[in-house]
Amino acid sequence: MKAKVVAVASSPSHHFSKARLERVDLVAGLGVSGDSHAGAKVQHRSRVRANPDQPNLRQVHLIAEELFEDLRRKGFTVAAGELGENVTTRGVDLLALPTGARLRLGAQAVVELTGLRNPCGQIDRFQPGLMSAVLDRTPDGELVRKAGVMGVVLSGGPVAPGDDIAVELPAGPHRRLAPV
């Protein structure tokens, strides 16, 4: 199965969920045009309070649709955009990709992965118990964050449901994604 974009979403204000759209436009160095998290400098409110001059490593949030299927099996009702992601994917194991992996979304847009989304308490306010459902532990006790990955836009362009996704792995050793 080819990797595909399932849905795209954006919000001009800082709300937990984002509205699904027919298309979003990615802008190099900034993120999703019109989204509250777009910008060269950090836009997430907690990070702005800590240091407003840090680079924005969270310009685009991607989640695999397979996570939503897993959550539905556990009794949750979650749809694309509702966990705040900009791009919902199918057919690519986002969490297994290394830091620096590049995703070509559609014909033009390229997003470079910077790290994992570190889920926060807003997830439980959205649906009680959801936080623990998007966290897991490896057999040796290491925390596994399943709430998606973050990236920066290297090349802009339109992205829409149905677009193909191509993965380009970085040269060098595999560096596991860490929370950003």
Plain-language structure description:
The structure is a single chain. This protein is an alpha+beta fold and 180 residues long. The protein has four helices and 13 strands. The protein has an eight-stranded mixed beta sheet with strand order 2-1-6-5-11-8-7-13. A three-stranded antiparallel beta sheet has the order 4-3-12, with no helix packed on it. The longest helix is centred in the middle third of the chain and has 9 residues, at 65-73.
Tell me what portion of residues adopts beta-strand conformation: 25-35%
Integer tally of domains: 1
Order of helices and strands: EEEEHEHEEEHHEEEEE
Structural class by secondary-structure content: alpha+beta
What structural keywords apply?
180 residues; alpha+beta; M1 Pyruvate Kinase, Domain 3; 3-stranded antiparallel sheet; 32% strand; globular
